[in-house]
Amino acid sequence: MKRNFLMGAAAVAGLMTLSACGGGAGSDANAPAAEETAAAPAAEEPAAPAEGEATEATDAAATETADAGAGLQLAGLTGDPAKGEKVFALCRSCHVLEEGVNRVGPSLYNVVGRKSGTVAGFSYSDANKNSGVTWTTDVLFEYLKDPKGFMPGTKMAFPGIKNDQDRANLVAYLESQSK
Ligand code: HEC
User: Fold this and answer.
1) Domain map of the chain by residue range?
2) What are the Cytochrome c domain coordinates in residue numbering (predicted)?
């Protein structure tokens, strides 16, 4: 699942690279490759030089993105924590983020990176307690789409959030609250 995260980051970084390069060095670098392709359509790797440069540029942009902390990347989506806070309203009837405060569901204090079924004083189902899952952002993204599908036997009575963007925003919010 880490893979998705990386691909997402690369995809967004790629977009940024495209818009950032405008007509400058980017188009200069691409022009020769395009001519080569036209002149020798059978050549095996006509675009290789341009790709090499693009990869470097993408790496640089990816680093910048991470440094700038521009949202959480999930399945190619950027999660917006501010919007996710509103989505968390769906959870509040059963969960709070305060440490040690269990309601219908266990406290979600520091939930990102936490092992499942480990909140003291909460009576979990066996399914949740023994799932062996660690609540990474990727796992939460999957779980919250369809909790009972992801974890058969869970007693969390919540149908899930089908909208990927809403879910990415929510997970970004949970992550922002888990540091
Ligand atoms: C109707 C009440 C209810 C709602 C609404 C609800 N949950 Fe839960 N949640 C629970 C219960 C109960 C459990 C414990 C499940 C078990 O033991 O099988 C749980 C478990 C969890 C766990 C596993 C925690 C752990 O320590 O392993 C996570 C993560 C979680 N919920 C996140 C959410 C999020 C995020 C939302 C909002 C999108 C949400 N839940 C909405 C009741 C709810």
Assistant:
1) 2-70, 79-176
2) 79-178
